[in-house]
Amino acid sequence: MKLAVVSDIHANAPALAAVLDAIAAEKVDRIVCLGDVAGYNTEPGRCVRLLREAGALCIAGNHDRAVIGAIGTAGFSDQAQRAVAWTQPRLEEATRAFLAALPMKLAVDGVLVAVHGALHPDVGCELVRLDDDGKRALSFDALAAHPSGARVCAFGHTHRAGVWERYDGAIRFLEGETIALRPDALYLINPGSVGEPRGDDQRASFLLFDSQAASVRFRRVAYDRSSVLARTREAGLMAPPRLAWLPAPLRSGLIGLVRRIGA
To answer: Are 195 and 230 in contact (CB under 8 A)?
Structure first.
């Protein structure tokens, strides 16, 4: 089975459209979305429509849960809180219903388990960030015990692409654009972010998982990012510049000016 895995779209419809066009050329069996369709940018409804048209299997992310009021935003960044508050009164009923119906975890044909943040714990898994080996070990344990028998778990939330392997008790990070998977190991794979990549490469990111070929391949797709940033800035959702090195009065004045311009 060949799966295209996407995550962290964050209401960036042009990025998602570009990724779906690239996926169409790959002749995949299914598209799996790891959540956070909403948040940060301005087009969650269009993103939902694109995913539904593509027949994607989706799970809920923490931003999706927040915009429908299922969880609060304590622990969210100021920018993320601002986006949730902006999105909630503008959410179309069809989009709200779609997000509210999303499961927290999903097993796909016995070859992949999909989560947003982590495969552990049972409650609040969408909020856990797999950013160290201690947390990854707990999700590897959950994968080893998963009733689906899948040996691969796809997760998002960190916005950073990567593959982690557990073999013979050791966890290691695997580098490369295409990665071969051992039949006797467990894997945590992250496709990166479609709409809000973290790092130097700002192109939309996704991955292709081929269970028969036992491989993971990462893809990056360019899109008109400037138009998205313009709409996000116009809505007042851009993060203020990081100016911690400036004296407090000057920093406050500049941040206020940026917010007035973006309001």
So the answer is: no
Distance between CA atoms of 263 and 261, rounded to whole angstroms?
Answer: 6
d(CA 77, CA 231): 20
Omega before 249 within 30 of 0, i.e. cis: no
Nearest to 262 by CA among 226, 219, 229: 229
Both structure tokens of 80 = 């993320």
Look up residue 15 and give its amino acid.
A
Portion of the chain with pLDDT greater than 70, in percent:
91
Three-class SS of residue 85?
Answer: helix
- Distance of alpha carbon 145 from its chain centroid, rounded? 24
Q: Which residues contact 109 (CB under 8 A, 6 or more apart)?
A: 1, 30
pTM of the model: 0.91
Give the pairing of strands 112-115 and 170-174. unpaired
Give percent helix, percent strand, percent coil of the chain, each to the nearest 5: 35, 20, 45
Q: What phi and psi values does residue 95 have, to the nearest 5 degrees? A: -70, -45
Spatial separation of the C-alpha atoms in residues 254 and 243, rounded to whole Å: 9
Q: What is the pLDDT of residues 154-170, one digit of tens each?
A: 999 999 999 999 999 99
Which residues have CB under 8 Å from 81's CB, separation 6+? 73
Q: Could you tell me which residues come within 8 angstroms of residue 242 by beta carbon, excluding any fewer than 6 positions away?
A: none
pLDDT in tens, 53-84: 999 999 999 999 999 999 999 999 999 999 99
Give CA–CA dist 197/156, Å, rounded.
11
Question: Distance (Å, rounded) from C-alpha 3 to C-alpha 135?
Answer: 25
